[in-house]
Amino acid sequence: MSDSSANPDKIQKRGDSSGAEPAALSSIDHSIRVPVVLFAAAAIAWLLVGSVFGLITSFKLHTAGFLGNWEWLTYGRVRPATTTVFLYGWATNAGFAAGFWIMARLSRNLLQNGTLLNTAAVFWNIGVLVAVAGILLGDLNAREGLEMPGYAAPILLLAFVFIAVWTVLTFCYRRSRHAYVSQWYILAALFWFPAIFGIAMLMTVYAPARGILQSVVGWWYTHNLYALWLTPLGLAAVYYIIPKVLGKPVHSYYLASAGFWSYLFFASWAGMHHLSGGPVPAWIVSTGVTASLLVLFPVFIIGLNHHLAMKGNFAVLRTSPGLRFAYFGAVAFTAVSVVAALTSFRSVKEVLHFTHFTDGQMQWGLYAWFTMAMFGAFYYFLPRVLGREWPSSTLIRVHFWSSASGIVLYVFAMCIGGWIQGSQMNNPEAYPDFVEIVRNTLPWLVMASLGGLILLVGHAAFALHCLWLLLLPKTAEAGASLTSEPESMKLAAK
Amino acid sequence: MNRLLVIVFGILITIAFSWVGFVYSSYLQLGGLEHHEDEMSGDSFPPPRSGIAQRGSLVYREMGCVYCHSQQVRRPGYGADDERGWGDRQSVARDYIGDRTVFPGIRRIGPDLMTIGGRESSREWFHLQLYDPRIHTEGSTMPSYRFLYVRRPVVGEGSPRALDLPEGYRPPEGYEVVPTPRADALVEYLLSLRMDYDLPEVPADD
Prior knowledge:
The complex is a heterodimer.
Chain A: H1 25-31, H2 33-62, H3 75-106, H4 114-136, H5 153-172, H6 181-206, H7 213-246, H8 253-267, H9 282-294, H10 296-310, H11 316-319, H12 321-342, H13 346-352, H14 357-386, H15 393-425, H16 434-471, H17 476-483, H18 487-492
Helix pairs in contact in A: 2-3, 2-4, 2-14, 2-16, 3-4, 3-5, 3-7, 3-14, 4-5, 5-6, 6-7, 6-8, 7-12, 7-14, 8-10, 9-12, 10-12, 12-14, 12-15, 14-15, 15-16
Chain B: H1 4-30, E1 36-37, E2 44-45, H2 51-62, H3 116-119, H4 123-131, E3 149-153, E4 175-179, H5 181-191
Antiparallel strand pairs in B: 1-2, 3-4
Helix pairs in contact in B: 2-5, 4-5
């Protein structure tokens, strides 16, 4: 196995291909402009909707009666709507945009029959809209992470299959000999999602499994949605952005390969800590705890690979917004995996289970890791796809510092608040009144809302900036500088 | 690792591995659980819910109650569920087999509800709690579910089902507040949440 696979820019003609030359990056970017911009625009629109919904949800936790007179805006509806908007509207659309762009570029392939892909993109978003409307109207499934009604799922699954087939075909007919790490992760994500989504919808909605088995399937799905759909797409983006921006190959191909397979095997087993102490056989939770520890092995390998690539190049973080966001995400990924492993033990879960800590940890994974990595990808690919430079470095700074400080504040508040809440719930002598514990969490929940408000500011800056970029006239020089390869990259490829 | 088939084959193995490991093996263990028949009395446990309580579970689901209330009791000695009076034995898989949708939940922003039907027994209490939780508990952050109740002009003697609301929550003179069928169903469901039977697989605490 050649170690040239460690470099996203090594171009080699496939020996057996029919003489097709690898396409130039600029023409690839041009050919996939419409679907990528479509996914990205939908993602950003959902991000704004999700931020507003999230803020409403967060306010309701500490201000009883806030927007409380409408049934469709009650906490039990807005909360699942927020989750759905965030997971399927923002995160998945963003993952499609980044994943498809990276796949097309690494496969050196022009997009064929783009109309079909664009139609699938529109259908995916119609599906999300139907899901969110259904939830607000009361047809929710009440299963964390899979809240959509049964009639929304087929639209999503059908659209997904189209998008996935297009991406896999782009890989099949690739004009470069080697498959790069990012491509493995994207392929894994594309096969994992429809499998778990189909099984989970079948076993929790269409033909609900018996009793508590629904919860086992539900958590198996929700954990894997994070671990084997979103995380691989985030890793694909980080594995692409770091070497591209730094102009040097991934540190080690063997590390990347070992990390990939061990991650796929262990991560899918690690979600069962959500059932800790619950009405399920003990082996389910024990296996989950063991897997949470084992998953640290690939996580450290992946982190080491990124860190070794970054070593000596930290100054670039200041000049490249794409790298800054992506590296923030990569560090958060390592950190949240360690926290997940440490808190999966039964003795820790005794305190933290059923508390706000869970939400802090979920957002740590979903926002501080995945969303930040996606922002990094957006900052890197949007100018290249559109052939324009970002017009304002101030807006980028506002976005980065809002997102970074907002999420740190939110996660801090929820984790500490949750810890206090859990300790007090387990101490009925000192805190016999449940409502007193609720009252003691309020300052932390207000702090979390403040975090959410700061995030909204950042997202507004980001959306505004993207709109500005879209409306800018195309500049020839910028286009050339963005799609041509820097000298260092060519040297590294040798 | 450059061949599509090798990569895809590997990925499919990881999916199958995880599915067999968690979903299929849990199915083998839990999928065939049956009610426990008591040989002395001939009763079956968990007892089936009434039709109206089953309708109430749909209201429980559409209001998203599960996002703040768990329905699972941890074993005595693990956490403080027993001391808080939420249940004196651990809830087990068999406790859930009668329901089409189960709500074990993962948050206790409010108290656990596995045994709420045994802790509060009056329908009136549940209606007041749903109408406005501040009636019973000052400082509660639970949402009010007033939209499950109708305020209407009193006709004649007034409805016997009108809520007896305390000062400060009463409608204006000449009006009364009565529950909708959804509120009634939800209350019946909440009343049916009890764990007052023993199962052979759970050691009795007392």
